[in-house]
Amino acid sequence: MPSILSLFIILVLGIEVSVVDGFLVGTKFVSKYPPTTKLTATSEGDTRKAGHSPKHVVIVGGGIGGLSTAFDARHILHKDDKITVVSDRPHFEFTPSNPWVAIHKRTPQEIRLNLEAILPHHNIDFVHAKATRLDTEENLLTVESDTGDGNRKLQYDYLVIATGPRLAFEEIPGLNELRLENHDLLHDENIVASICETDHAMHAAQAIDRLIQNPGPIVVGAVQGASSFGPLYEYALLLKYYLHKKGSAALKEQCPISVVTSEPYIGHLGLQGAGQSKEILTKLLEKNNIDWYTNCKVSEVNKDGVKIEFHEEEQMETSDSPNMMTGIKTKFLPSKLTMLIPPFRGVKLWQQTPGLTDDKGMILVDQHQQSISYPNIFGVGVCVHLDPVEKTLIPTGPPKTGYMIEFMGTACVRNIRALMDESDSLQAERSATAEHTRPSFHVPILNGLCITDFGDEGAIFLTLPQMPPRRTDLTIEGKIGTMAKMAFEKYFLFKIQTGDTDPYYEKYLLHLIGVDRVEREKI
Question: What pTM was computed for the model?
Answer without folding.
Answer: 0.88
